[in-house]
Amino acid sequence: MRNSIIYFAAIFTALLLTASCDDSIKYEVDHTPTMGMSFWNAFQLNINEDLVKDQALAVKELGYADAGYKFINIDDGFQTPRDSAGNFQYNAQLFPSGMRSVADYIHSLGLKAGIYTDAGDNTCGSENKYAYGLGTGLYGHEEDDCKLFFDEWDYDFIKIDFCGGQHAGLDEKEQYTRISKAIRSCDKKDIIFNICRWRYPGTWAEDVANSWRTTYDIRPWFSRVKYIIDENLYLQAYTRNGHYNDCDMLEIGSKWPGSDATLSHDEELTHMAYWCIASSPLIMGCDMRKVPESSREVMLNADLIAMNQDKLGLGAPVVQKEGEVYVVAKDMERIMGPKRAVVVMNLSEEPATIDVSLDALGFKGDVKLYDCFSHKDVDKPASGIYTVSLQPHASAAFFATGKRIEKSVYQAEESYMNKFSTIEGVSSPLYKASNSAGQGMYVTGLGSDPDNWMQWDNVYSRRGGKYVATVRYAADGACGFTLCVNGEEVKNVDGLDTGSQNDNWQTVNVEIRLKKGLNTIRLYNANGAMPSIDYLQLSKK
Ligand code: GLA
After folding, report:
1. pLDDT per residue over 119-150, tens digit each?
2. Distance separating alpha carbons of residues 357 and 320, to the nearest angstrom
3. CA–CA distance, 316 with 239 (Å, rounded to integer)
4. Which domain covers residue 359, as residue numbers?
5. For residue 126, which atom of ligand 1 is closest to its CA?
6. Among residues 351, 386, 404, which one ends one of the domains?
7. From the alpha carbon of 159, which atom of ligand 1 is closest?
8. pTM for the structure as a whole
9. CA 47, 166, 131 angle in degrees (round to 5)?
10. Pocket residues for ligand 1 (CB within 6 Å)?
11. I want to staple 263 with a disulfide (CB 3.0 to 4.6 A). Which of 138, 158, 267, 324 is the partner?
């Protein structure tokens, strides 16, 4: 008996270890970020059937649909309280022909139709007091409502808010997972599902939804566009496998209702460029019939849209930072292929000049630069450094093409942390700023759980072979980790202690073998704490 317990315990441990090393990354995605428009920012609750049809027609007639903006997403405000049997009701005064007929009209224009609800009881706009939205959420009606929205009414997209979820005290992971099952049980397939939880919900969202909001609602520059960029800079690893961080609707070409604040032209370009390079859904939030020409050009910028709709569907981590000037970049078309997208943003209040390091961008020798704002090649190829001067809040956006070099330093903040979340009160590992860490950032709070791991998804080796992996760490008390390459355990490292979790950084070397092309490297500790990690450096042996 005892032997069989030991035997099963050994198998269980082996399964746990294998599960902790296991990886699965898609290098080409089924869905690129959703593009379309939504009614909330410009119209809030003041929507009706004619307005929806009118805006859909504008999207079709004014060139937005041809540029890729296909979804016409009805937001909050079309509901009325359920009937006495609990059946969902739309407001027949506002939508006299009915929701199905509106979706049919949208489809007749060659566009896609989107709808809105809440994961809990009440919608956000109801503020838990206005009757129209009370009890209209999905909670307790998941399957019936999904069948109505998708199989009867034929909608193609749904945004699911969480004000009612909070009000009903629901657990977001459980409830959104239940909803996802209800969506998948519908006859209609290929429904795009957007979670609106206003924080990065956690990596479970990738199994459940196509995209998820990461922040509170967008507003003009100071209160929100800048905050949204700041919040998303270090969430880029979670945009992967065709599932996306949603930076919220575009606030381009519009005024927030009740305010005169608009974005300047530079701010609109920075807003669009960041949403595009970060592979955020692009959901326009303006009155489509009243967009100033310069804003229309920003939203129809074909180069930025191509950057957004790239088939790799990657996020864009920070590759260089000087104060509040950031360089973010991602591969385009092929991982480690010759073409990269680059956005340089001055988020500070002063004009700034930055020498963009083309080495840090992963290039060697001459690099051809194409300017995505002027749609022209930059005069002559750059080498080593490319200097960019920017007014406050302005940016530059490029495609860079050249010979790539193997990347040697993988910052911890570029890694994917499996238990990461920014929901208040959820236990999560953290990205933390520190002047003593490389690029001013490190990660901490990993380990003590087989699922609490970090992983670099796209570790590239030109020829494959032996490497030394140098891990820079700091630890208060004995910590350790197991290093896995491509799902296989390579080494356990124990007894790491530098006397501090965020200082006295030291390094430890592990010999590894990479295969030719793309590899994953994971660090985990199922039973004890991991040290804080600053970066992983690879040197070819
Ligand atoms: C929340 C969402 C918004 C919008 C409103 C509708 O605030 O974050 O985008 O959908 O609800 O009430």
Report:
1. 999 999 999 999 999 999 999 999 999 999 99
2. 8
3. 9
4. 318-404
5. 12
6. 404
7. 10
8. 0.94
9. 40
10. 40, 75-76, 123-125, 161, 196, 198, 217
11. 267
